[in-house]
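re: ur question from earlier - yeah i can do the single chain one, its not a big deal. heres the input i used so u can compare w yours
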Amino acid sequence: MKKSRFNDATLMVNVENQIAVGNNDAIEATVIHQICAYRKKDGSIETDVDYVDIHSVKFLGMPIEEGYAEYRDFLTKMTDLGVNAEELINEACVGVITVKDVNQVTGMFSNSQITL
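and the output i got, formated as tokens:
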């Protein structure tokens, strides 16, 4: 019988935040970041934060249909109107994940009962 050997562990946590951008906060959305915590070879815990998704997009209070193609169409229409919505959204995502958020995930990982 084959015996599995576990040699690494990673905790991945999705964090959702609401953002509003543009003139009079015309674009609203929920953005998802993923915080990954893992143990380095020296035993310390490292974290990475990545922007992974967006959903529940609204323009002037009107919902944009869910889905990749629909979101791309929305961005194209906004570009045609002279608004770089993608850039506005990316700028709004900077700093939305706080040090406190990262520390909380680090604490979750360090307090876990994972032993390899």
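The helical segments are 68-80, 85-93, 99-110. not sure if urs matches, ping me
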